[in-house]
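The pair is quoted verbatim below.
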Amino acid sequence: MSSNFDPVMIELMRHEFIALSEEMNMAMRQTARSIIAKESSELSAALLTPRGEVIGQAMIYGLGYFTAVMPYLLKKFEGQFKPGDVYLTNDPYGGASHLPDIVLIRPLFWKGELCGFAAVVEHHTDIGGRYPGGMGSGSTDIYHEGLRLPAVKFYENDKPIEAVRQIIAANVRTPDDVLGDLDAAVAACRRGERGFNRLLEKHGRAAIENCYQNLYAHAAEAMRGVLRMIPDGTYRAENDWNDGAGVAVKLVLTLTAKDGEAILDFTGTGAQVPKAYNVPPDMLEHIISGYFFYFLGEADVPINSGLYAPVKVITPKGSVFNPNFPASVGGRGTMIWPTVELFYRVLSMAMPERMAAGNEGGSSSITFSTIMPDGRVAMITDIYGSCWGGRPMKDGMEGVMPLVLNQYLSSPTEAFEREVPIRLEGCGFVPDTGGPGKYRGGLSVYRSYRFLADGDLIFRTIKVGTVPQGSTGGRNGTPADFYLIRDGKRLDMDRIAVNEIKVKAGDVLFHVPHGAGGFGNPFERDPEKVLADVLDEKITPEYAEREYGVSVHIESETINLARTRMLRDDAAKAKSAAA
């Protein structure tokens, strides 16, 4: 903490930094071309110091992208930055995540000196390569996965470098989307530059730097406060993960917590795999470290690089979490989700009273591409969530993304139906899928897509062969189901993590994700809550009686108190006898 401490000034600057990054986000979304940017919000913007630290960011997503990429950019171009420059990178071996995620960076100058950077990261519609969308699992090295940009200059003197634009356009399936979004990112960075220069003119560089140093210390101490919730000690968990298609890997995590600091050590994890499930180490650190942020709850904490200061992540070289070049990484999201669950399990060992039951296991997604009559490629990636597990004081939520995708949105139906020959024919709760508990697990939210043209489909689901676990007496959630309907007949798909298939016009993809696990003894659930679930058609009367011991009279919309008392007494006696 700086000795030159002005709390009013620091608080004002905290809001200024956040407001500027929010304005950059809005500028990006309002001028972007692709659905994934303007509707799904798979992007994030930030202001950075000349050292590459994040000064301010409106959302936690992307914090790790910028802090990971900047050391590579600074090493390659330090001393060469000029006003009007813009740089691009998507190199997973240079701090990025996977090739569809492009980081755009603009150096900022004030009075002739480099004073920081404005940056935007976005998941792009396509990046070329073997699979549309760049996330297919079958690639065996990064050369299969598309165009790799190892920190290249995109603009010079505020003018685009045409050769770079032509290279990008020639290597992606949706050049209008990709270049349109990159231009939007440039506009967003210019907006950040104008706002940052305004602050420098008003307050001076020394004052801005002092405020950032204090805010960095504030964020770091807030994170240490979160880590102090974890009892000092060492906690270890492991998971034998497989994709259902022949790829298996052992995942190991050891958490050491001590006095407000944490070490997350993945030593013991299996070697990199010959598919695209490998995870670049910087991506893993971003996801896992960022998860701690959510324990801050309602605390008003600045989002900057200080949040990472008390957390250390260790990933063995050559493992699935730190692969050797040129291992493929495009489908790393498939591996991220079991890793998040492993992390969640370790935290549940350390503080079970604070952790929810098992959730759906991550986000599912489809990528559909087709050739339109005019010869262009139409493509959509729709990433969607389903439900959370029952919590220590509340039921699980439904229709939400996993925590680590806190700002992601499912694409609005009207948006993708307008641009791609696909129709969302159904989306809704699936009764009796939430794991029973004192606090019920969230219900599965199904989706039904009809394809109106022949095309290529990449469908990712989560938790192959397993179900979300209940907690502290709560029961497990339900398994996923997915299949195609063709000419009125059900065609079962392979029970694997990623299906890459050809679909025909008229085919329907029907997907029921997992229902989440319950928290606590189901027979301790308030009968009135069970009645409300039955009346809301979240559970059936038969399920209420079997799983909760609550008898509901549908016609009168009341509880049969005598039968409910009998059912619960019988359950208590059976439990006592078993003990």
